[in-house]
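Dear colleague,

Following up on Tuesday's group meeting, I ran the structure prediction for the three-component complex that the binding team flagged. I've pasted the input sequences exactly as they went in, so you can double-check that nothing got truncated or mislabelled along the way. The structure tokens for the whole assembly follow below. Feel free to forward this to whoever is handling the docking comparison.

Inputs:
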Amino acid sequence: MKESISTSVLRVDSRKKIRGEAEYISDWKFENMLYAKTVRSTKAKAKITAIKLPDIPKDYYVVDRNDVPGVNRMRTVVSDHPIFAEEDVQYIGQPILLVVGPDREIIYKIVSQIEIKYQEEEALFTLEEAEKRSTVFTDYNYKKSDPKKAFEQAVRIIEDEYSTGYQEHVYLEPQGIAAEYKDDTLFVYGSMQCPFYVKNALLETMALPEEKIRVVQTVTGGAFGGKEEFPSLNGCHVAVATHKTRQPVVMIYDRDEDILCSTKRHPSITRFKAGLDEYDQIIALDIDVLLNAGAYNGLSPVVLQRAIFSATNVYNIEHLNVRGRNFMTNLVPSGAYRGFGAPQTIFGIEMMFQDIALILGIDPLEYKMRHLLKQNDPTCTGGSIHEEVKMKEIVQKAVEQSDYYNKLKTNKKYQGIGISLFLHGCGFTGKGETLIKGKIILQKNKDVVILKVSSVEMGQGAETVLPKIVAHTLDIPIEKVIYETVDTGLIPDSGPTVASRTTMIVGGLLRECALEMKARWDEAETFEVSKIYKHPDFLHWDDDTFHGDAYPVHSWGANVAEVEIDPITYELTIKKITAVFDVGVPIDERALIGQMQGGIVQGIGWATIEVMKTANGKLIQKNLTDYKIPTSMDVPGIDCDFVLNPYEFGPFGAKCAGELSFVGSPPAVAAAVENALGKPIKDIPITPEMLMEIDNDH
Amino acid sequence: MVKAYRPNTLTEALEILSTEKCTIMAGGTDLMVQRARGSAVLPGFDRPLMFVGHLKELQKIYQDEEGIHIGAAAILTDMMEHELIPGIFKEMIGQMASPPTRNMATIAGNICNASPAGDTLPYLYAVNAQIVLQSTDQKRIIATRDFIISPKKTCIKPDEILVKIIIPAKEYSNNYYRKLGQRKGMSLTKVSLLGMADVVDGNILDLHIALGSVAASIVHSPKIEKSMISKKAGEIKEMAEEIVKQYADLIRPIDDARSTAIYRKKASLRLIKDFMENISQE
Amino acid sequence: MIIEFTLNNEKVKMDVEPTMRVLDLLRNDLGMSSVKEGCGEGECGACVILVDGRAMNSCMLPAGAIVNRSIVTLEGFKHTEQFKVIEAGLLKAGSVQCGFCTPGFVMAIESLLNQNPDPTDEEIKEGLSGNLCRCTGYNMIIKGVRLAIEKGAGLW
């Protein structure tokens, strides 16, 4: 019998990585290459009144906005970020100009001699200040049923507020990018998730025709959203530099520069007002989501959309009024990060459910289960849960495997257990997939099959999983499936590597192509099958009213966290995580478990040790000495299990997975801490400093 | 581009120093990071550099009637593996930085960096370790607490090399060490407490308490310690409140990227109390 | 400063700036691109190499300090029996995702097993605590080391 698609295979890329032979962009060498160093704003908000340059030696260049051949704006959802600063700067770290040349010592010397004069203006930094001054970028609102009336009828109203902090991606490979001309075609190479985003940004900034630009993804050392929109900015930087110098230009960030200027997870506040009926059921919710977007919009509007469409999580609440606002502050722009706004609101609602249950004296898990969505229920945006919801099975597994109720009963003070339930909407939000219309090509070339997609391998396993889908369908060895170089000149645009869409959407298209290819296999020695993504007909979405199916399908999960708190120092130890997921069908179980464990640990980091704050617009934690991510000594044992729930439109039944892994551990850990201390947790990260203060009666 | 010396012997090193001010580099783990300017550019050293990490005279760990001598360039890993180093000191060193860094970092580097977060310092203060400084014409022996003047500042003279540290060859019957960092692996210290005592038949014969990262220098008070010595272990519990109050006056922490002043203070006092409770149960 | 050292068992003699980071020396002058730069401050372990058999952060190591010492990078280490066993363990356990931390981990694993051929899981975690990984959550890396230890009994 043929092996199941879930049976693990060796990762295609692991051997070269273990041998140190994978070539990341910092390992690339070009003939006559120049290095670039960015000069950045040291002020949070100011007019630039003068830039005084020293004498620039031969072979060295200063590159600024005057060198941009096209539009000096980074193209993204809202194209407001200048490639190079113009009259003003809006955050510390904003790029003003580049110094480019062959010797880095000399570049550093030139940089140290550049004097920039500013006229400082009053800046603002926190969500509280921004709300007071109404510096709103985006203000969204949607309603379901009749919240006004429902609140009037509610017998009890409970209000609460939850906040989350910054998170830095800390992909181990810092941002790196390079550009060169070959004849008159501009090539940009780099560590990135979305080669076509970079290409589209270059089209506008470089004012070149489509065929004169090629973007090539290089081995990418982790991304997690941090290399979604950001490479469009540094990609334009090196492109403008190579345009000016006519030599290859390479720009690799040092870690401190990367932390200073790259996007981060949006800090958030989520306010809830819950209306309860006489049976303690939540019949109405008023949710107000505030995200700190930083100085420019970028992707923030779509992050906010996912945040508000995920705000009711796995629960069916009849009456809803949901508002979401992005606020402008003079901080580095926030952007895409695994979960894309959803972890913030799901943290909030999970804690809200737990806190209301505790107020009511009901077991939190039981209270959550009472509100659970099921198949054919309306979603918060008035769409429908089309898939079977297997949350009961998921929760049962998680509860049994962790011995949840027994531990809940027998835990002493300072020992805690907590559970979170969660979902993730698979693929792009709303009309995203229908706008992108991802295209893929599968090419038969005698006994090998070439797969042409713009999805990138960035650690998540695309280079193994996508060929595996094709190989499995065609009944050929995986070695016979060649993953074409992700070069926009060689591949179609199958969309960016984001939104946990790669396996489900791109993999789904590959499966369709492979099925067709299989049927036509003997037709010719070489031929090509191509498909364009089509959204299933039964899905409807209205982008103006936010009504309909925000997502085609969801993946679901439950996490149980066990914690211990040191009664003297309030140091927090995560003892164990039990995780159960419904991702449809795992395409490769081992690769998937690795991804899930990694996401869970990133979530733990965000919820506990990853403190990042600012003072007067400056990051206080500006390097990896001060900003701590989990080490091997900080991680618990993680049990990972799956509930099978095949999705009709996913390849072999697969749904989304990558972001789902992140969402559950923060509220599970926070719930466990509440359980350990008997005190409510409203904010993450949960630090010993905070716990000591909360437990002040001790 | 700085000049650099790599002397073959200690004598040669001292001769160079007698005529020229140099920055002395042993493991490099502090200096190379403090002076780093970026990838592929040289760190910014303003004085000639002298490498001393390779000097065999500075690497030895041995014992004589004066105590245990730890060569200045002994790396942390070697100390952890050495039979002469007291157990609690090994445990403290084992919680410093990470294994690769401990394979490079030296004890003298940790001392000369003179940071209140230097993790060997609470021990060196507590046992009154002697720092041996050598120049071509003289040898000075100074207590650690006198050697470190203020954060980042020591009393070493430009012509001197810190050649070794002498600690008593002594293990205590009760040892207590807690290092609080931002995470469990590889962290700089936000609070540390070292407590050591000799309790025999319920009598406290000797006792030391030292705290790191909670003031401009290591907090160590022989005076407060004295008030506990020769007490019955059982009496200590009643004294705890008063003792903690005395330490509270000495603990003056700051807010920084890693913690808050208020947490540092509260956690230190709670740790002192915990140590005293442990002793009282002897 | 003229320095001599061995790199992957071959003698090297060269004129270097003594304060240059060995990381830069290896990557830029000697073509050892397996040595990665992840932070430049000794926090991430991506630049870990072996010096006289022990793991060190090459970003904090000045060139003047490696005189007469034996440097091993993955370019040399990958030809050893120990490497093959570590590689097999990591492959089988699924320890690798983005791979940027992996060379540093391989060197740190070798150093750990040199010092302690039979570590407990806690000792493995401690031994690798100077190497950051953001993808895996470490569980599978520890499992990979465990597999290597089982398969390579007697090698260390």
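Chain C has two domains: 2-76, 81-151.

Cheers,
M.
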